[in-house]
Give the backbone structure.
Amino acid sequence: MDRNHVISAKDLSRADIETVLDRATEIKRDPPCRERHVDDLLALCFFEPSTRTHMSFETAIKRLGGDALDMGPVEASSATKGESLADTVRVVEGYADALVLRHPSEGAAMMASEFVDVPLINAGDGAGQHPTQTLLDLYTMREAAGGLTDLTVGIMGDLKYGRTVHSLAYALTKFDARQHFVSPESLSLPRSVRYDLHESGARLKEHTDLDAVLAELDVLYVTRIQRERFPDENEYRQVAGEYRIDAATLEQARDDCVVMHPLPRVDEIAPDVDATEHANYFAQAHNGVPVRMALLDLLLDGGER
Ligand code: CP
């Protein structure tokens, strides 16, 4: 893998993705020698809340033998004094060997990457992209569904504001998956994403009803309605609570249908699904560690061992 910044799943080739997933598989089986990354420092700059992405990147660099340098809560940073994102990342790159950035503005990671030479990893930019979530999603699908070829994937929920959806759809297109998008019309895919998918030859269909496709799916990827991105709370209330699944819903699914969710969930997957064979979302979250270890390992030294 010879790229520097990781901004959008659109930029990752199928070979790049397979390189990271293969390395993650090796790491899970045989954790790498910690000496190799002992001098590596990873800066964590989170301008938006996070549990999984933040903690799994921190775990990943520490398990590789390096250390994390956390900007801390945005309220305690100099962003509150009016410092620009460009200036912040220009300063932080002098402290660390790579930088992980989460920001509420779509396009922020792309803009910031133009100001730094160390690898910058987009950990979520508003409703834009979340490419490392996609890497762990694909890793989980590969493990749980037995491969990434010939998959039929249903992606349900907030397709408009869900950055994990946008990244996943771009990546699944590279594996020629059949993609069924299920949402209320008001939360369907943004026009720009739909255009990109059509341009790249995606096999996609859009639905308002899960029943239309549930029985066909190898994977059902459920997402949260992104309340924080709605400009109008009333608009959120109109769709909140729709597209909820429970164990009874899954009686219509194939026995081997894998249910995933990037988490956090609110109420879109009922707790009674957790005890079924379908539930894979906690394993999915745990896969964030080996996958992010693999990515950091490759970015920090080109994967040379
Ligand atoms: N999936 C995900 O990005 O979770 P966090 O917001 O907790 O990082």
Summary: DSSP finds ten helices and nine strands in the chain. The longest strand covers residues 41-46. The pocket of phosphoric acid mono(formamide)ester is lined by residues 50-54, 124, 133, 262-264 (CB under 6 Å).
